[in-house]
Give the backbone structure.
Amino acid sequence: MADIDPEEARGALESADRARRQMSDEVGLPATYWWGLAAGWLLLGVVVEFCPWWISMAATILFGIGHSVVASRLLSGRRRTSGVQVSREVTGAKNAMLVVGILLMLVALTIAFALILDAQDVGMPALWSALIVAVLTGIGGPEILAAVRKWTRA
């Protein structure tokens, strides 16, 4: 091993790092996660719109607990597809932090839409804002995560 020149070693290390980054880019959340999140978001909008405040609060807490269980399993480095399974060392804690950030953004968007719709005297603003955010989440969730990962270089 002493006869490996520094340029070969550097090339091998760069190749390994490139492969690690490529595998890390493969890690994400399956489309079913995003559509499940969207369905839960919409259901929560229905509950908020039509149920008493205490049921809405309980549903919000249950939604948060359920989501944290599901997301923690999916972000732990398990399979996004049947062909890829990586360890937590590759995925790191950044993915989980990015998903939490995306969720906070979705909450802020839902509140903003609801306030705008309420100011315009649109009926059922909580439901309509939940529907808007649910559609954005279901259709654009994977792209949102990919864009945020690219912006943050995670």
